[in-house]
Amino acid sequence: MPTALIVLAAGRGTRMNSDLPKVLHRIADAPLVVHAINSGAAIEPEKVIIVAGHGFEDVQKTVLEYYPDAIVVKQEDQKGTGHAVLQAKMALSDFDGDAVVVFGDTPFVRPETIQKMIDMRKGGDAISILGFEAKDPSPFGRLVMAGDTLEKIVESKDASDTEKQISLCNGGLVAANAPQLFDLLSQVDDNNASGEIYLTSIVDIAATKGLTTGVVRCDEAETMGINTRADLAHAQTVFQKDKRAAMLENGVYMANADSIFFSFDTEIGRDAIIEPYVVFGPSVTIETGATIRAFSHLEGCHVARGASVGPYARLRPGAELNENVKVGNFVEVKNAVLDEGAKVSHLSYIGDAHIGRETNVGAGTITCNYDGFMKHRTEIGENAFIGSNTMLVAPVTIGNQAMTATGSVINSDVPDGALAIARGRQVNKNGLAIKLFSKLRNLKEKRVAEKK
Ligand code: UD1
Ligand code: CA
Questions:
Q1: Ligand 1: which residue has its CA nearest to atom 37?
Q2: Would you call 73 helix, strand, or coil by DSSP?
Q3: Same domain for 197 and 266?
Q4: Which domain holds residue 67?
Q5: pLDDT tens digits for 276-317?
Q6: Do 106 and 44 belong together in one domain?
Q7: At what angle do helices 111-122 and 32-40 cross, to 10 degrees?
Q8: Which of 237, 235, 224, 230 is nearest to 103 (CA)?
Q9: Does the predicted model carry a pTM greater than 0.85?
Q10: pLDDT tens track for 18-48
Q11: Residues within 5 Å of ion ligand 2, judged at the Cβ atom
């Protein structure tokens, strides 16, 4: 059976105290709304519909960067969660599968939990709701149970004193057959304490039609919604803690896991070693047995088996390190492929380049890739030797087994097997240093005497 995901993301998020729409605030480099969509991705939705309102254009643009096939619909006025879901009706007019509603500001729902909601639907319940035992139930809708089935959900503002005693709360997520969901919502009114069209009102309407609602229970931590900067900061901590635990579980070696920061999509193979204080930006994959040494910063890059990076290295987007490559301290690599066994050990900038296998790049070497207007490429062959402090003025090609002399400024191609020397020739003037020392010493003594 096909599924659809509806993500509610129209709210302003006043309490974030920010110009940025709430769902675009980031945890581990990904916007909240993207975390929410990722959670739902486990059910392989045929359609993903985002209901946006505040900051519509920005939300739409960001969502489409991550999910180009998503449909972003507009909720002009925020008249409640039920009203928000109704905005997805047009986009799902020809769709007859199950729809799962998630909140764009609730990033930690586990994919397995959403799958359980779909499974519960298969078990015969018309609606499946996510519930949790709340430590402090006061902000949440309460689940009024009749045995195993849910009778209704009462929002806190509308709850009676006895209902307020209930600690089983609504996590916000709903799964139901899409046409039936829209049909039930069309019967919901705004006759409640907030004057809103509540999504939660479909439960008792369904009950009057003899349709049952089941509850999938999860841990409160999963349903944590982000409303304030403090919530966001806490969520960052929770995310890192979970990600570190998952990395350790997968066989990554980290002597000081708490000092390492991951991105939402960091992937690291078994037996890789990550030294303290490494920061991973988005889109990094590290293969089995690679070593990332302390204080390195990596984003948008791939590090293959047996490669070693850092300490204090910076890998920027498009850095591709093949097997057994070594990138040493204070080296920056951007948009460059380093073939097997290549070494750039100290203090270099390698950008828009390709370095052939087993080539050694000496300390202080720089690919001068930018002329102020355009970027140019540097090609270095295999088994080449680039002398320390070589300036490679791109576009330029260095052949296989070629060499450049230390301190050279290379601005034309070097053929295979050639040695390129491009620097001033050294001249020794015998005795001249001694003469110069004494001349300068006398000059200084004269000046000091004049001042007295
Ligand atoms: C909702 C539930 C409540 C549950 C709680 C869990 C309803 C009526 N109440 O309450 O039972 O315990 O979540 O956190 O569903 N949104 C829109 N458009 C709107 C209104 C909301 O897109 O018109 C979006 C918000 O941006 C947010 C989500 O829906 O992402 C939830 O809305 P919010 O106002 O936070 O609902 P709660 O009052 O917390
Ligand atoms: Ca909320």
A1: 140
A2: strand
A3: no
A4: 3-223
A5: 999 999 999 999 999 999 999 999 999 999 999 999 999 999
A6: yes
A7: 40
A8: 224
A9: yes
A10: 999 999 999 999 999 999 999 998 899 999 9
A11: 225
